[in-house]
Structures are given as structure tokens and as C-alpha cells.
Amino acid sequence: MLRISNHYVSKIVFGLLFVELLVLMGSAYAGAAVRHLGAGEVFTPGHLHHFFTSAIAFTTAVVFSMSAMGMYQLNFSDGGSRKSIFLQLMPSFVMGFFILTLLFYLAPDLAFGRSILLMVFAIAAIGIFIARIVFLKTSELIQSRIMFVGNGPLAKECSDLALSTTRYHHYKIAGFVPNDSEEVCVPAASLLKVREGESLAKLARKHGVEEIVVSVQNRRTKFPIKELLDCKLQGVKVTDAATFFERETCQIRVDSLQPSWLVFGGGFDQSFVRTFMKRSFDLVCSSIIMVMTFPVMLLAALAVWLEDRGPVFYSQERVGKDGKTFRVLKFRSMRADAEKPGKPQWAAQNDPRVTRIGGFMRKTRIDELPQIVNVFKGEMSFVGPRPERPYFVEQLIEVVPYYNVRHSIKPGITGWAQVRYGYGSSAEDALQKLQYDLYYVKNNSLFLDVLILIDTLKVVLFRSGR
């Protein structure tokens, strides 16, 4: 895995993106060359400069569309089948075509000719299709040998994660170094036999191990810290379970977390530069979204009022940065008497209190748009943990470890948990969302904010998430 602005990015995804950038740029030139040669024309330096700028615009539009369609959230469970690649590729290219058409309308100097554009898209589609099949099939052959220190529940959970077919990284488990203080939760056949006097480093070399994951729940007894240091000095990567989970799931697992890991680990950037960039990003994004969606908001307001003649907007108290409360503004998506008994209730998927218009707005996130006002007021960010009601926060703090950490930054209209997890209607769901929120709080950056916005577009297009 690579780390870009503290965010973990799969080497496979990064490599695939690099290959596809080359394919798309090459397709732009190939399409133009075929068209010009067919017309008996010759490329001049002026042609080359023009096509370079146009090729950049084409490549950017298609990569953005593929990202918005989730084509870089790889799933290896289908083995990179031709059918799944085709079903993702076609909508992505249709979306890219519309984006590029709009871009060429706004900047006609960038435009290809119509015949060239169709030729470029045809060559690019074939090139991306072939590149994906070859790349994904080849990536399955690349495996890292990994060894776990421990044999308890934590080691079992780590190994299950390593063997998951949906993971971006392929692992071959060499085995588990037994720990007498733990219950054996892994297959007995996978326990490594450690001979008397045999060091951990020698055992790692013997099995060709590239990485050791320390998955011992209790480190107070018989913890081989000196041997692990020796392994690291000899070039074997040593990783603790919390970092392994963070890297592989983009979550921070609170059930196996040592408080010292949060204190002494990296991340949690709250510097002036980050705060300034974050605020600037919020204002720019909010302004653009408000201008682009203003007609939609007018129609939404009219639809809400026409359905039951009730209030258009819904204001509710939420907990923000540093635990301070504020009133969030949304389009009303439930009946006016949704909480008539007076006791707050979790919002659930297919909630009977949701109106017909409200159900559509929730799926498309239109009901969230008035929160742009909260962003302008400085109460929220565009990207961040979703703000929760004080009633639920008091309950969750009691049962969910580290829940208050999410209040160290401003809440957001959309967030890492919203694009990765979806609906939540219980304390268990809140725990899962918190683990994504903690990852964002620890690793938040402008790069991660942009990725979340792209994923949000995918959620809106496919009407998934919360």
C-alpha cells in the first residue's frame, strides 16, 4: 500500500490508474492520427500542441467518470471478469462523453472534431477493456508472504481479513507464531513449529516472510519485542494489528486499539495550514454546489410543500466541533409529526415516517443541500463526520469507545463513513461508522476530501448510502 497525504492507496489501484492514463492519452493521439492520415493530412507542431491539451481534457473527463462509477474500488471476488468490466466501463464512458461535450462547449478551443472524438472513445474503450483484463489477471499472481505473531481471536480476525477476496492486496499466510497465553482460534495445522533457540528472524527467513503482523491481544507477558526489533533491522516489515486494520480496511478498529497507538501515532493534523485549506475548500465547494443545484433546491422546496402543505425546511439540534451544539438545516423528508411521542428515534432504512418525496431526496442526498448554509456559517465542513443529535451522542459515548474523538473536527455534509458504510440505525452501526470517522479524523487531507466527493457522486448516482 502507498500513503498519499496520510491516506492508504493500493499499489494495484495506483498501477492500474497509471496504465489507464497512458492508454487514454495514447488513444487521443491514435484517434487523431487515424483520422488525419485517412484524410491525407500531416501532423504539424501546432497540431501536436492542440491535441496534447485536448488529450489532457479527454483523459481527465474519462478518469473522473470511471472514479465516480466506482471503477477504482476493485472487487477481486469476480476475478476481474469481462462482464463486470464491460458493465462498469460503458456507463463510465457515457458519463465521460457528456462531461467532455459540456467541457468542449464551454472551451471550444479544446474540442476534437466529431469524427475524431468518436474514434478516440472507441480506441480508448477497447484499450481500457484489454488493459483491465490483463492487469487484474496479472495482479492475482503477485502475493506477499505474511506471518502473524499470535493465535488468538485477534490473529484469526487479521488472517481472515488478509485472505478476503475483495482486498486490493493478495497475501499468502506463512503461518502463526504460537502464544501460550492465548486461546487457539486459528487452524492447528497453520501454527508454526518454533524450535528451541530458533529466533523469530530465522523463522521469518525460513518461510520467506516479507511482513510480520503482531496480533497479540495481551502484550504484557512473553512479548518478543527484542526479536521483532531484530526482524525489522534485517529488513522484515513489522506491523501491529491496529495499523494492519487501518491499512487494509481504511478504518480504525476500536476493539483492538491501544490508547498509546493514537497518542504516539501519526496523523490528526490540526495545523493552521490544514485548517486554512479545509476552510477554503469548504467555501469553494459550497459555492459551486449552491450555484449548480439552486434550481434543484427550488423544485425540491416546492415538492415538499405540495405533498402535505407542511414546513419545507427541518431544523434540528446536532453536536458539532468540541461538543458544541448547533442547528442543522435540511429539507423536511419525514412527516411533520415524525416524533410526536417526544422521544428521539433512530432514522432507519425504509423508515415509515419518510414521505414519498422525502424518500427520493434521501436517496439522492437532495435533503442535505440546505446544510450549505451551515457550512457558510462555519458550523460544518463540506466533508467530515456526520453530526449526531445530543440525545444519541450521550448514549453512544457510554457504549462506544473513543466516540468523542470524532468531535475534534467540524462535522460534514458528506463523509468517509457515509460513502463506505451506508445506513445506520443502532449502536452497532454507530460503532462501524465511528471506525471510518476515526480514520478520517486521523488522516484527513485535501486529497482524501476530493476522493470522498467523488465517492459521494457515485452514492448519489446509484442511490446507495445514507
Automatic annotation (TrEMBL):
Keyword match Transmembrane: yes
How does the protein's chain sit in the membrane according to the entry? Multi-pass membrane protein
* Domain of life assignment: Bacteria
User: What keywords are annotated for this sequence in UniProt?
Assistant: Membrane, Transferase, Transmembrane, Transmembrane helix
Q: Which residues cross the membrane?
A: 12-31, 51-72, 84-106, 112-135, 283-306
Q: Which family does it belong to?
A: Belongs to the bacterial sugar transferase family.
Give the protein's recorded name: TIGR03013 family PEP-CTERM/XrtA system glycosyltransferase
